[in-house]
Each structure stands twice: as structure tokens, then as C-alpha cells.
Amino acid sequence: MVAPPDNDVLWAHALRFQHNGSPALCGVSVGVRQGEILAVTGPRGSGKTTLLQCLAGLVPVQRGEVWFNSTPVHTMGSLRRERLRRDRFGWIDPVPLLVPELNVWENAALPLLLRGTGRRRAKTAALEWLERLDIGGCAHKRPDELVSAERQRLTVARALAACPTVLFADEPTATLHRSDGAQVLRTLTAAARSHGITVVLATLHPDVAALADRTVSLLDGRRVTTLQLPPVPETEGRAACSLSA
Ligand SMILES: Nc1ncnc2c1ncn2[C@@H]1O[C@H](COP(=O)(O)OP(=O)(O)OP(=O)(O)O)[C@@H](O)[C@H]1O
């Protein structure tokens, strides 16, 4: 076992993962520093979601290592990974996954309630984040009364209300219009920076990745280095190319 660097809150080494025999990650190593916003980019099927799932302990690591601070995640059983996710991690899916029987503030407060936070404190935190995301007026509605942009704002509020150590956001604005998506991303990144929340953000889009402190690119389950070359006329060639690292 290799010791992770001290200043990384998350650290993965030589991760390999297959979905039903089909390779999704082929030896990926990555470190995420405390308070950093790290973008994971790459085309469809390049392994972004699988990498986030391994880092977040959502799936058991098949080969390689994942460390959260000085704790090995790759040796944890499902119950310990579940507790780690509940107490320290947040997750935002591309499509909102909400509990239809609970109202909006109860959905936003759910991670805090599951952690054992009192109902009044959890409600206060949930309402504060719903306000910041401009859906405070929907607090007593049910999720099916919201339009899709409001539902996605709710999942962002739910993730931030619990003030996780690490927030994993998998294409968090994929279902939103451009202007809506930009506003939600601004709120998310500003909140992360002001609260010292580390963010791992999977995205297909360079303009979303540009909001991050650093970008890691994947191609066919491997890390690649993207070289930005100076712009040249169309006829002379491409402005950027990727090299296997
Ligand atoms: N549940 C699954 N069963 C089988 N194969 C899967 C499963 N999930 C992902 N894969 C495959 O694993 C590879 C990596 O998928 P992954 O979803 O991690 O990539 P991605 O970069 O997040 O793609 P996208 O941008 O489309 O979400 C792809 O070839 C994909 O088809």
C-alpha cells in the first residue's frame, strides 16, 4: 500500500474498474486537494461517472486504492462506505433524484436528518439554502409540483445544506438551460469556496470546467494531458490536442 500525500483530501492510485467485464477505468491516479474545485472532463463513456463513484465509495474499488484523508476507502465494507458518504460526502446527479412523498424543505434537509441533526436545525439550514438558490418560495411544495430546473436547484441545495467535506457533482447542470445552469454553477462554486467544500465536478463542457481550479481529462478510462496551443487559422491545423499521460 502506498501512503497518500498529506495535502490531498482524496487520493486515488492505479484505479481499475469494469462494468460487467467492460473496462471503464484503466489505471487512473488522481489527487484532490483540500478546498479545491477539480473538474473531471472527457467525452461520453470516458469514465467520469465511474471515477466519481469510486472516489465517493458508491461502488467498491475493484483494483487500486482510494484514500479519504488518511482513511483507506478501498478496504471498507459497504456499511462503512455508506456511513462515510452520509457523514462526509455530498452527491449531485445529472437528473434530480428526490423523495416524492416529502416536501421540498424536507428533501433538502434529508441528509442532515439522516445524520441525526435535530429537525429544527435541519429545517433552518435547508430553508437557508433553498433561499440562496431562489426556490425558498417552493419550500412546502412537493417535488412533482416543481419544474425541472427547480428540482435540480433543490438537489444542489440538499447537497450544500449538509456542508459536506467533499461534494461530487456529476454533470449537475446537464438538464438546465444555459443561463439557469450558469447561475446554479456560480452558486455552487461560490458556496464551496466560502465554506471550504472540496468539489469534484464531472462535465463534458469546457466552459463548466473553466470554473474549476484544475482539470483532469479522461479518454477511454485513462488520464490524458490536454495541451492548449496558440490559436492558428483553420487551414493550418487544430488548436488543441490530447496526449496519453
Ligand atoms: N452500469 C453499467 N453497465 C455496463 N457498462 C457501463 C455501466 N456504467 C458505465 N458503463 C460503461 O463504462 C464506461 C464508462 O462509463 P461512465 O458512465 O463512467 O463514463 P462517462 O464519461 O461518465 O460517460 P457520460 O458522459 O456518458 O456519463 C462506458 O463504456 C460505459 O458504457
UniProtKB/TrEMBL annotation:
Keywords: ATP-binding, Nucleotide-binding. It holds the Pfam family ABC_tran. One of its GO terms (molecular function) is ATP binding. Signal peptide: none annotated. The keyword Cell membrane does not apply. The keyword Metal-binding does not apply. Residues 10-245 form the ABC transporter domain. It comes from the Bacteria. Belongs to the ABC transporter superfamily. PANTHER family: IMPORT ATP-BINDING PROTEIN, LIPOPROTEIN-RELEASING SYSTEM ATP-BINDING PROTEIN LOLD. This is ATP-binding cassette domain-containing protein.
